[in-house]
Structures are given as structure tokens and as C-alpha cells.
Amino acid sequence: MISAAAADSTERVMFLVLMGVVIVAGLTVTIVRALRSTKSSEEQMARLAAQLDGRSQVCIRKMEIGLSREDLLRVAYSRGYSLIDHQVMKYYEFVYTPHQPGRYA
User: Fold this and answer.
1) Phi, then psi, of 67 in degrees rounded to 5
2) What pLDDT band is residue 24 in, cutting at 50, 70 and 90?
3) Which of 21, 46, 63, 93 has the fewest CB atoms within 10 Å distance of its CB?
4) How many CA atoms within 13 Å lie on the side-chain side of 28?
5) 81 exposed, middle or buried (CB, 10 Å; 0-12, 13-18, 19+)?
6) What's the rounded Cα separation, in Å, for the pair 67 and 36?
7) Inter-axis angle of helices 41-51 and 4-37, to 10 degrees?
8) Nearest-CA neighbor of 89 among 70, 62, 67, 69?
9) Is it the case that residue 36 has pLDDT exceeding 90?
10) Domain boundaries, the chain
11) Is the pLDDT of residue 90 over 60?
12) What is the mean pLDDT of the chain?
């Protein structure tokens, strides 16, 4: 039988380990996203163009991409996508719309 003090101590250690894992994972994701946004514009545009591969919807967090709105629109339109800027949730949504009247090919 485990004493109450030992059980309480074990719970605290498990909680601290779990919180440490969550914090490390969060920092890792943040660092990776920040590093992606510091790449050159050409690299970011190439990566975006590769992601816009005909899927009906592609979502990209604003933190992951450091391109101007004009560059985003240029890549999106060239691939047949429309751009939706979600300012509250801080992400871009690209919706596949290949046959829009009036769009330049």
C-alpha cells in the first residue's frame, strides 16, 4: 500500500514532467515556424507553390510565411487559388478556384 505522501509526490513529478514536455514541444514548434519565415522570398514562394497542388483548400499560419500580400496573391492566382486572409485566427486560406470568369490565365 502506497502512503498518501508518496502518491502525492508521484503525482507532482508526473505533472511537472508533462508540463515540461508541453513547454518544450511548444517552443520547438515556434522556433521551426520562425525559422521558416526568415527564408528568402524566392524559397518561400517556391514552398507555397508546391503546397498549392490542386487540393481544394490549403491553410497556412501567418507566422510560417513572411511574404507580402502581393506575393501571396501572385502565387495563389498563378496556381488557380483565391486567397482568404483570416485576421482573427491569423492564417491564410487558399481555396482552389480554377475557373473564375474574368481571371487572367
Assistant:
1) -85, 155
2) very high
3) 21
4) 6
5) buried
6) 11
7) 110
8) 62
9) no
10) 1-38, 40-105
11) yes
12) 86
Residue 45 has pLDDT above 70, yes or no: yes
DSSP codes of every residue in 7-67? HHHHHHHHHHHHHHHHHHHHHHHHHHHHHHHTS-HHHHHHHHHHH-SS-SEEEEEGGG---
At position 52, the amino acid (one-letter code) is L
Instruction: Report CA 90 to chain centroid distance, whole Å.
Output: 9
Which triple of cell numbers denotes residue 70? 502581393
Quote the cell numbers at residue 90: 491569423
Residues 6+ apart with CB under 8 A from 2: 10
Which three cell numbers mark 38? 526568415
Reply yes or no on whether the pLDDT at 25 is more than 70.
yes
For residue 19, give the C-alpha cell: 508540463
